[in-house]
Design a protein that fits this description.
This protein is of the alpha+beta class and about 400 residues long. It has 3 domains: about 80 residues, no CATH class; about 140 residues, Phage tail protein beta-alpha-beta fold (3-Layer(bab) Sandwich), CATH 3.55.50.30; about 180 residues, Jelly Rolls (Sandwich). The strands form 3 sheets. It has a 19-stranded mixed sheet that branches. Strands 1-2-24-22 form a 4-stranded antiparallel sheet.
Length: about 400
């Protein structure tokens, strides 16, 4: 056992929060080098790792890889049997954790991969699928900013610092790579609209002139004024966005997605309005919002969700997994009893893939679980493969193959 287990746990806690100084990292590796994977303290370290699910920062050093291999060397398998859901429905399968240490050279997926299969397709679980002919990189911090005059800035290539002045507001790319608007009262009173758009395989963060923070998911856009000067604050989106709205009781904040309007004073919520999804989903995490479509209205409380389909029907859901709904913001795919097409719609946006289904593809197979978004496409697809999905990945085309007889 390490000569100083309390100090080791303290340093490891700082490590998973990315708060270690270079000197502390050196001390951590030194103490960790004294451990074996069977050391009793490793159970506590594994629990901390599992709870925090750290990003793979500083995992490029040989010392950290050694520690990670010790953590993963005895990764726990968690089996949870679920009760039958409702009448006449199948019993869900069990969670199985697949710990991944270093599946591909130079890449470590921190925290492991979690996935569950339920439904049809079990008979193919042991059948190998065709290997990927070409792999696909995960998405990243990519977006295009369209200014009021129509000119565009590719943000991934833009230098940090001031990018433009728009209607009395300063547009800045921050050190963290996000976009921030700062309105000067001494500047021009003109207000113009800007649009931030992410491609497939891109996400981006934005701070509006009122201090509202927005996270934009892949294949999405938000159009907004450079300053909020009237009696209300109005933005419009396509795709998916997460909002932390700056409080201003005298100036309500409206998010418009097609003919759906979400009104807030100050709150945290997610809105999923992709055109290829069957409904628009508004999920509330904090505060309250009022969702309107035509003559129908719903007020949400934290933990609630409203589904907006055709017509003016608003369906309220109360048993909502909010962590799952905003998993994309935390760099994770998270699925709860969804079919294969729902899974692949998300993967297609993040990995910029075109999905083709051959006749007999297992589209009704259902999945549940979590996957890290920093994994290569082949790694994620290998988990689907283990659950009976056969595929062919060639460049940007992913073909789902039929179930074998």
């Amino acid at each position: 056992m390490s000569s100083n287990p309390i100090r080791l746990q303290h340093l490891f806690d700082k490590y998973v929060h990315n708060a270690c100084t270079p000197e502390e990292l050196k001390e951590l590796w030194q103490l960790a080098g004294e451990l074996s994977e069977n050391d009793p303290i490793m159970d506590d370290i594994r629990d901390l790792w599992d709870t925090k699910k750290p990003s793979p920062h500083t995992l490029n050093s040989e010392d950290s890889k050694i520690l990670l291999s010790k953590i993963m060397g005895k990764a726990k398998i968690v089996d949870i049997d679920y009760a039958n859901i409702g009448h006449g429905q199948h019993q869900r399968s069990i969670w199985k954790r697949v710990a991944v240490a270093a599946c591909f050279t130079g890449l470590i997926v921190a925290g492991g991969i979690y996935f569950l299969r339920s439904g049809s397709g079990a008979k193919n679980a042991g059948i190998p699928a065709p290997v990927a002919l070409h792999d696909a990189q995960p998405g990243g911090n990519k977006a295009i900013l369209t200014l009021g005059n129509g000119s565009q800035i590719v943000l991934a290539a833009a230098a940090k610092g001031q990018l433009a002045r728009q209607g009395g507001s300063q547009v800045v790319k921050t050190d963290s790579g996000n976009l921030t608007y700062t309105h000067s009262k001494e500047g021009s009173a003109e207000v113009v609209n800007n649009t931030l758009s992410t491609p497939r395989g891109g996400k981006y963060g934005l701070t509006l002139a009122d201090g509202t923070q927005v996270w934009l998911n892949a294949s999405s856009s938000i159009t907004y004024p450079t300053a909020f000067t009237g009696g209300e604050r109005v933005v419009s989106i396509t795709g998916e966005a997460y909002f932390e709205v700056a409080k201003n009781a005298g100036k309500p904040f409206h998010v418009r997605a097609g003919d759906v309007d979400v009104e807030v004073l100050g709150t945290h919520f997610n809105i999923n309005a992709y055109s290829d999804e069957p409904t628009i989903k508004t999920t509330l995490l904090e505060g309250s919002v009022r969702v309107s479509k035509g003559s129908s209205h719903r007020v949400l409380l934290p933990g609630q969700q409203v589904l907006t389909g055709k017509g003016n029907t608003l369906v309220l859901g109360t048993d909502v997994d909010t962590e799952m709904e905003v998993a994309w913001k935390n760099n994770e795919f998270n699925f709860k009893d969804v079919d294969l097409k729902t899974v692949l719609r998300q993967l297609s946006r993040w990995y910029d893939l075109d999905i083709v289904y051959q006749d007999g593809a297992p589209v009704n197979t259902r999945f549940e679980g979590a996957l890290p978004m920093n994994a290569m496409a082949s790694q994620v697809l290998s988990v689907l493969e283990k659950n009976g999905v056969r595929f062919r990945l060639d460049g940007k085309q992913l073909t789902i193959l039929p179930i074998l007889p």
